[in-house]
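Hi L., both proteins are below.
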Amino acid sequence: MTGLVRQFPAGVTRSVRVPSVSFAHLARLTDDTGLFEHARHATVRREHGYCTDDVARGLAVTSREPEPSAEVTRLAEIYLTFLTHAQDETGAFHNRLGFDRRWEDEATLGDWWGRALWGLGTAAARSTSPWIRAEALHAFRLGATRRSEAPHAMAFAGLGAFEVLRAHPGDGESLALLADAAAAIGPPGADPTWPWPLPRLTYANPAIAEVVIAAGAVGGDSELLERGLRMLAWLQEVQLNGGRLSVVPAGGWGPGEPPSGLDQQSIEVAALADACATAAAVTRDPAWEIGVQQAIDWFLGDNDADAVMWDPATGGGFDGLTPLGPNLNQGAESTLALISTLQHARRTTT
């Protein structure tokens, strides 16, 4: 555990202990095939099987570890093997695998295709294991030949390309995919009260801004970069309630609707941390670290319900913040969101 002092928006200084990154619950959710999607409390629900979305996130967070243990490397290998099995010869991906090891869907270019490329790109750029980097890059290149009609899928894939470009600057396939992802997002509409390129805020909203920021930075396009930064700044502003983070709820939020409320998902918090970290790295402006800190503090209890959103006994993240308090189930998505956000905490406090 790392002891840190936080200054909370109400002006009250509280001593907050930020947990170190733990993969204990992620390992509990993982077998030799992949990462189970759901849990009841901390116990795996095998009947719900596995999904590519979560496995891709798992590969990303394990690959982001600068000094992975043997256990973390083992998890990364399992997740990489799952993704290469999920990918067909055209570069598309299946999403849902039953506990009977049978695919329950066809390979397509949905969000899971984009998230798979994000995970593979992260592994290709950041894994400390050469064999993981090589295989992840091979699978990424196959998937990067495709394009999805869904803006979110393109955003996730573009962020995978941004990761590859960390290790392979000038890579043509990655540059093309990142540029196409930003184009798929498009500019904001004409309504000055809604400076967002999509008609509603739905899910993983910060990733939409992040990929525009990434494309602007990589392409040397200052106008595109500024557009992405404005999008992210506005998104930060509308997700504050009394100075604390209050992310868009699961039902989304659109123009003219009441402010967002509870039924908040951990993955939204982690996405904001990722986007603000990217903005800070690209601009070298430490002000963007405020968004990262707000995401960390949300998990530690500085949220609309004053509720801690993780279980110290297991290392798992709670599945959401409801009007009745935390959903105490500790599934893959929320646990990965916790790990991802705490990885940023380590970066900002060392």
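That was the first. Here is the second:
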Amino acid sequence: MSEPKVFLLPDLGEGLTEAELVNWLVAVGDEIRVDQPIAEVETAKSMVEVPSPYAGTVAVLHGEPGQTLDVGKPLISVTPAGATAVAPAAAPAVEPAETAEVAAEVYREEEKAGSGNVLIGYGTPGGHGVARRTRPRKSAAGTAVAEPTAPVSAAEKAADDLVLMRTRVPGKLGAVISPLVRRMARDHGVDLGELQGSGASGLIMRRDVEAVIKPSVLERPVAAPVETTPVPPITGAGAGDTDTRTGLGITGRTAVRGVRKAVAANMTRSRSEIPEATVWVDVDATALVEMRAALKKADPHHTPGLLAFIARFVTAGLKKFPELNTRIVTTEDTSGGSSQEIVAFDGVNLGFAAQTDRGLMVPSVRNADKLSARELDAEIRRLTAVVRDGKASPAELGSGTFTLNNYGVFGVDGSAAIINHPEVGILGVGRIIDKPWVVNGELAVRKVTELTLTFDHRVCDGGTAGGFLRYVADAIENPGSVMADM
């Protein structure tokens, strides 16, 4: 009887450590081929289909729809074609620890039998490594006894390098690293953003982190794990459940996960780390609305939307006020101290907020400063469709340098938005409505909108922020003259 091949849930990009299993696309007993989609999973970034690296018969599905799975844990077991299938009913008899160990060993040793396309758009090279035994052995009394951790051998380092290579994402190779490397860097205070990866295409490897950690730190013994009380899973409210603080009945409970979990964490970090300030101004957008109406009359099918024109003004404004197109980076030195620096960019990746069924997403138009209003419009429409379908890549969602937020579509005038960490500024645009406005000393009805800029006070003062905001406002009020200079 042939042992099934166990496929582990791969790193889905950006170093994400978990994913929610949305739907199985296969069932136990199905015959599958290499690269056939087997499951739909949702991460904090996007919805993706996971293809199988093996061909054969589905033996075990490791999870139920709605369950959150950890990266590196078994996803599916496949009996190779032509081999005797292992009965699915036998799966529960295998200990969870044993299953994980077998899965890890099979995944590393037999990966070369698959296509190499562990995930659509995520490449994996050939070759294999040797997995280290980490499962606790059992004593005669049946209690678990932890085995001592073996020194890291050359074979183990090679295996780690191979695992890291499997986490590549096109367009952001240097920023995608395994949970092991991220944890090592975090534990020893290494800023991964400052490392130059020695792997293929700049991939950050474990050896890169080890090279900057002092030997005394590496040799420090690992502390014993702290025992914690298990937290019960969130479930639906039963009949008669009452909130102890308010005395009101509870109608339901919703787990914070996926996109909502990522958004909550990012917004919390933004508010806790960034000393933000907000400035705003009312703008007469009549000339811009009229200019677009004239363009649409001449060419109904290729006229950019108002947001595309404003995006063009924003990128031009960021060139004049580059302080708002930066990022704050904190580094720690060998003495335990830290320092900060402002990192400037050669170009603008303009993010824009898009409301979807999965929550608020912020895709970014790469090199937006090099695009015309018509090109910006096309890319904004494309990215909006991609994120609403849940198909945006990590690079499309995590590479912005400044964000434009059109909350006017919700019928509101203004908002002091939270900066999209680690950016340093976000510009909000309110609804455009008819308002009384003084023109040449006389009262008139004009198309008015409100611009709101929230900025990181560490990178600039109010003069710079006000100058940028006034530039964009003037461009909206006099679009013809401004675009002539672009």
